Task: structure prediction
Amino acid sequence: MEKSGEEVCNASSERIGVYGAKIFREFLTSKGKVSNFEDFSKEELDEALEMLFVELRQKDGTPYQVRSLNTIRYGISRTLKARAPPIDINNDPAFKKSSKAFSHISKNLRLQGFDKSGSQNTAHCVIPQDDLRLLYAYWSDFTDLNKAVQKVWFELDFFGICGGKEDAKNLKKGDISVQFDKEKDRRFLHRSTRHSNLRLYEQPGRNCCPVKSFEQYNMSLCQETALFFTVPMTTIPLANGISAIMKKISTAAKLSKKYPNGSVKYTASKLCEALYSEGPIGSNITLQVSQKIYYQ
Result:
């Protein structure tokens, strides 16, 4: 006889409850503690759950993906709600510490790329300083327009002036212009078509200057097309070439690995985090980040 949708759902929830409870018991045992967590006081349970969320790892030592961690927490919650009297670890203020730990760990796992699979998402990897130096050594002669378009794409993406693959494909000539900051006595790149105060400042006297390479590439654009990113000296859209452009750059510049496009923004976010940790920063974050990337 075929089971109803409700029966299937209940069976699935029961299996999740058993799975979550099993993981929790095994974890407690591995820490030399008793495993009958249903009998813990709320205080003991909160401390044990906090430790679970912070320290739980798979057998190979890697963290669980966020979805799996949610499943484990749901399973434990379902088990505790079935006891008498029921305990609600999600909404009871007595579980403030473990709830905070769960939120913090989940956020960190997403930042590290453990939000889609059991393995780290390769899009979320930092490009180290050694590879950044190799990049700018490779781009030192951007009179080669193929290098110029790569460098311009990288810097617009890194500093948030361009918002990813689709945005880059649709970017038009004239969307980004060179302006002058009288207070800082520096030119900068600014995108007029986005509601943003982001400014990518020039690096005077340095060949790696983003404004200099932008101008070099911009002058080479054909008048017959409105698109900004094209195959140099042609009207052919770069289009699909943008999808894997960072991997091509990685190979050409002989970096330590082939980086996906997502690693560019992720590296920028981590550099910003490092700046914040060092102390107060000014409103022109791009100037300070650019000084980090260009002057190290």
